[in-house]
Amino acid sequence: MFVKLLPPSIRKYLQMSKPERQYELRLTLWRTPLLYILATFLFVAITLYLDVGIGLAQYVPVFFKAEFETTRLLISSLIGGILTLSAFTLNSLLVVLTTFSGQFSLRL
To answer: Which tens digit of pLDDT belongs to each residue from 51-72?
Structure first.
């Protein structure tokens, strides 16, 4: 009943045998990022439970507690580093593609 509502790209996996399904899932690129996303949600749930549910913050020594400004500085530094790395990677990729496209152009 609910199988008909699924898109055909997902429905094909339900019609395969188990060995075929395992082989196809190993070949696709979305399996590993999906596992990372699920693990991230699990870690977030555990962290929120420890922080809000149990109240673990009251048992942590003062040495490990961070103020708002410290956390803000750390996050802004990490975001700046990630943006710099992304820009450098994109620039390098464009240089490589430009170099290789020049190799295959027509000579006049």
So the answer is: 898 988 888 888 888 888 999 9
